[in-house]
Write a structure and sequence with these properties.
Layout lengths: L13 H18 L5 H13 L5 H27 L34
């Protein structure tokens, strides 16, 4: 099914993910098969790409693009004015990673342990 794959990181609002999870639950109950969030998102993307001529799809793209532009513009203006950077609500690292170094385990190896 997936002869060539590409990994993609999606940043989605919690409400969208919650709706997709609910859809996965409904599909699981209807089909009596386990339907994951990934399956639902993949299906929504595939079906959405079949409707490229849809005006509502283009409206959605425009709305999102304007929001991103406005956020970036406001951020640049804050930097120019010398105001301290304000974190964007909901934008934080994964839980449990704050203050820890990235990459491989940087702790010294335990005696006799292989690395």
């Amino acid at each position: 099914m997936f002869s060539s794959k590409t990994n993609v990181l999606l940043v989605l609002p919690t409400e969208v993910v919650d709706r997709a999870r609910a859809l996965a639950g409904q599909a699981t109950a209807t089909l009596k098969l386990p339907v994951s969030l990934q399956i639902v998102l993949r299906g929504l993307i595939e079906e959405g790409l079949k409707r490229v001529d849809s005006p509502t799809l283009l409206d959605n793209f425009e709305r999102q693009a304007r929001i991103v532009r406005d956020i970036r513009r406001a951020s640049r203006q804050r930097v120019r004015s010398g105001a301290p950077a304000t974190p964007v609500p909901g934008r934080q690292g994964p839980p449990g990673r704050q203050g820890r170094p990235r990459g491989r385990n940087t702790a010294p190896p335990k005696e006799g342990a292989r690395r």
